[in-house]
């Protein structure tokens, strides 16, 4: 077992990835003149359909997924693949719930909606600030991921390349910040397309070489099946079980609903399309691409296991964690072929670049629209000046991502902390959007208190689980098939720890945890569900206790269209609680007068004049004024004013 070093072809493949990504950004900066915020942040709202769908896919193809999915299947089997089933169901639901409302508002920041709906800048700022904090920290972890998984075992860059790994981290971060800042959303989308191709090529290389090593795809699945790695449809109603079909479907459904429906990266992309129909098509095109990519990652995990089924490198002490299995496989089986090692590292770099560039562009949009645009100094700037501010913000967030990557290298458990962060944020943020769109009675007090309690509960559970360090045993591994050469290379200390040829990667014994500590053992997949449920329940109760928000005509565009039609059908005009129209006129006190019959022209008590009902029908030029002062033009059955009342 000998590992090859980088060849000229490996350098060419890796450096080409960074150079081409930079070139795309320069092209859109120089030749396409991305100068205003409309160009930089939403692509002039005229983005092409297929590239945008691929970009949305690439955004969530982080190296944590590329490496972690293979490790998950290697250790726990294929049960996690069932996430594709929830994606198939939930993506159309996400499009139906969120897109008709959010797209028609022509948002740049998704959190603008929250201020409009709840009539509260505080709700918007709180949600936006949470998102910025989450993404900034997560970008650092993602940027460091290509080398962090292999740092402690001297794999990947620092094992095969003669320059420090931090040069790679800084090079990735700076190139990403530069092409994102100068090229804007268009550059991000088209580099995502290129990087998606590299990612798929890297995974295909693992699958093809791995299948050839075993002797065919059917043999791969036969070996995996014999060792219990092929698992599906495990229906247990146990929220404390790490993986079962129910937890996977429900937990992942909440994540998909959040990611595809109301997360800034998705909203920014489908709001950049020319029409609502194209925005919806973007999500529907992304769906089969997600299924294909996750399937490829799952097959890669099965293939890697088949190659190590009888000689597990974790049990031998060659690697420490299951998320290091993919780099180990690449170094053993792909590195002897010139160019393939460079392709795999380029695959990891591309996964990092696509996620970080989308993150930079998203937090730039949120920072400017939700914070700076509220300041008179920035709001009075011209379009090009505002664009320059956004470019500068993108560079700042790129530098912050690099700083977070350095931070990730100096603290253990940063990856676990990122999972805690994402799990605690996704649920409450989804909940506040659901409250706004689907629960018209909820108010700003319910939204704020609900988010605070939701974040607090999920962070408490996540941190409790982190410090409890409860682990679920992996499926069994074997070292029966290791060759004498491999045993010679294994550290003798690690060998003496092997009590048998059949062992587990981590020697944890699953035992019952007493209450109240047991709450910390709830499946990590259910963190978003807990946060979402707590936020909605608390937010609804607080809204009712503080005077729930009555549905009014001016809220129509912030509520789901189906709910609007239902409410209008079952409520009379008198039951609407109109507060203010666009002219600031108090309509609530006038609602009762709209029922008064109009027989002859006269002045109402509020001074507004109506012509007679007869004159209005007979005279095509006849006009009148409603009780609220609105001018009514003659129609066949009277006039319709913008408060929704018809006068005959």
TrEMBL record:
Keywords: Cell membrane, Ion transport, Membrane, Sodium, Sodium transport, Transmembrane, Transmembrane helix, Transport. Residues 599-630 are annotated as: Disordered. GO terms for cellular component: plasma membrane. The keyword Membrane applies. It is found in: Cell membrane. InterPro entries: Na/Glc_symporter_sf, Na/solute_symporter, Sodium:Solute_Symporter_SSF. It is a multi-pass membrane protein. Gene3D superfamilies: Sodium/glucose cotransporter. GO terms for molecular function: symporter activity. GO terms for biological process: sodium ion transport. Pfam families: SSF. The chain crosses the membrane at residues 12-31, 52-71, 83-105, 125-145, 165-185, 197-224, 244-262, 283-306, 340-368, 389-409, 415-438, 445-468, 524-548. Its main location: membrane. Belongs to the sodium:solute symporter (SSF) (TC 2.A.21) family. This is Sodium-coupled monocarboxylate transporter 1. The lineage of its organism: Eukaryota, Metazoa, Ecdysozoa, Arthropoda, Hexapoda.
